[in-house]
Design a protein that fits this description.
The protein is mainly beta. The chain has a single domain, classed as Roll (SH3 type barrels), CATH 2.30.30. 13% of the residues lie in helices and 40% in strands. It is built from 2 helices and 6 strands, in the order ββββαββα. Strands 4-5-3-2-1-6 form a 6-stranded antiparallel β-sheet. A hairpin with a 6-residue loop joins strand 1 and strand 2.
Length: 117
């Protein structure tokens, strides 16, 4: 069994909303560390380089020019979309490409997504 930590950015086969197609893309691990469900799966949030998606309270901007942005392994400014979450099998994860250290911003976005704020 593989282990991934909350805040890691992974390259994963991310399903489209129609569940018929998928695209290899970066995603942020959002589930709690050591969730220990016994299932070989993990919850991730989609990351897109489409900056027109920024500006919604459920989304977090990653700027590559910042110290946090440089740790992500991403090539372009991007948006973490906590309103686009999936559970994927760990075997669909190619590799860890970086880390997002500002998980407090993601927690705020997730709270908005789930109506917890």
């Amino acid at each position: 069994m593989l282990f991934y930590n909350r805040g890691q950015i992974v390259l994963v086969l991310f399903p489209s909303s129609n569940l018929r197609t998928a695209k290899r893309r970066p995603a942020l691990v959002v589930q709690a560390d050591n969730l220990s469900t016994g299932l070989p799966q993990i919850i991730v949030a989609m990351i897109t380089s489409n900056l027109s998606r920024v500006g919604h309270p459920s989304r977090v901007l990653i700027q590559i020019a910042t110290e946090e942005g440089q740790q992500t392994g991403l090539l372009h400014d991007s948006v973490i979309m906590t309103d686009n979450l999936v559970t994927v099998l760990e075997i669909e994860i190619d590799r860890v490409i970086g880390v997002w250290s500002d998980m407090s911003s993601v927690d705020v976005a997730l709270a908005h997504t789930f109506g917890l704020a």
